[in-house]
Amino acid sequence: MAIQNASDLLVYKKTSPARAQVTRIKVKSSTPIKDFTLNNNIILNNVTDASGDISDGVVDALSGINTGFSVCSSISAILTGTYGYTATAVVNDPSDASFKKFDVTNGANGPVPTLEVLSGTNEFKSGAVEIVVITSGQSLVYQPIAFSTSASLGVSKDLRDITTKDSQGWQENAKGLGSFELSTDALWDVNNAVGVESATEDLIVGDSVDVKFSDRVRNLIDTEEVYGSSEWSVSNVTITKHLQDPFGQFTAAQFDVDSSGGYRRNQYYLPINLVESKKISWSLYLKAVSVSANSCQFRIQGDSAVQADLDFTTSIEKISGDGTVSSTNTLIKKVTGLSTTSWTRVQITTDSVISGTDLRDVRIITYPGDSFSSQTTADKIITASWQVETSTDASDYQNPTEVDCYQGKAFVNSVSVDAGVEDNATYSASFTGTSEIFINGLGHELLGDNYFDGVETTGGLNKLLIPNWKFSNENSNALGYFPSAARFKWASSADTFLVSYTGSANLDVMVVGKEYELTYTISAYVSGELTLNSATNNPTIPLIVGSHTIRFTSDQAYLMIAKSGTSGEIHISYISLKEVFS
Fold it and tell me: Which positions ≥6 away from 306 have C-beta within 8 Å?
């Protein structure tokens, strides 16, 4: 552990469960479209798939008749059939009999932009469509509620006496029951949204709580990759993923404007309760794609439930690297002259605290090019390693997946609160673990043997001998074992995959909807792509020779890695899978 003193520790409370956004779509029951033509279309914007990727310009061809029920049914079918939403039945709106309505729930948890239903070749009548957010999406949030003056963690393991007459006079022991205890003294902000009563309620009710003993979490962005999770969204840009970042990992991405226009962007949604009433500093690394594509613009914007988007005035500073920073105006900042070979790090800071009426989240936005309102397909940018801090100065980049911590479930043993001065109280609490404690938020290894180092050759064909692993086509010379590696080699579009397997059935090692960390080593790469078919939307995975770590949310219980494309050859020598505990 890198923890050096208790003054750098915080007490966190899990303040809100992760949840998906629920949206109500209402369409006029009678002739909602002006000049209806069969198979003409409408357009859907801000469509969020189950991995959090956002699409605009989704075309929905209307094949039914010109009624609210038919339009609602068509929208529901494309959202549920293609983008992972769930939907209620289309029914009469009891609050307004002239409308049909249905509710859709996003497939991914987290904040997302509001769905839009627009006229395409079929034009809606004025007021024929209404979109209402019933439940805003939000991420799982740990909110700091106390600032530690001291903290301690004790982990113990009992021993069982297994001494026998054959022990030759020496006591022998085996591992017994393990346990952990955590205690803290802290200065409590009694004006915090999470009050003192929440801790005493945990004690009185007797439910277990999540506890973490960790380094200070400086980076409020909860993923190392600058794309893909539900907190990220893009608009009218094409992403090239898995590029090398400044720290030798493969979490960077290139964003290319895919059509001429304005506001082509990549953005991240920050939960408002992490930053409200605070100044924030946003830092990120950038690199040019070419000498002519060497600029990027930046913006920090609030999303309000009751007012138009709220822009925050900002300042910009170059921390390191090539390029020149400047201000387009008080809201939009810019860097030009980026290098194509080395990284530049810039910092954008809000000039005042984050505030506004009924803010739901804060969006931090990049626009490839030097004019956010007039972009072309020549505008491109490479970016990596974003960090947002409640500070006016950027600190060294903190990988959010590598914060040292111990974490587990515990019962609250005791709570005491002493009156302090002004708005603070002195808080003491102790916790006793109810189960295992996990290091850095990762559970046990789920795959057993992690190395592909066994082989059997029968009739000139190689077969894996590793327990719990199987190729879809072990009787092909193209697959199976290659010295110390599992080999994918294919020259057709036939299905080929490596799957966790036992006996005569797939081996269930995961729970659908939970987050997992996959670590693997590519020992040789010739060509082709591999996809992680256990994750939402089957994402491609980095394949540069070396070790890689990615996190994903499972949509099936067994682990499957599949080839992509018509030909390729890739060798994997090591693979590990662990659950991520939030």
Answer: 357, 358
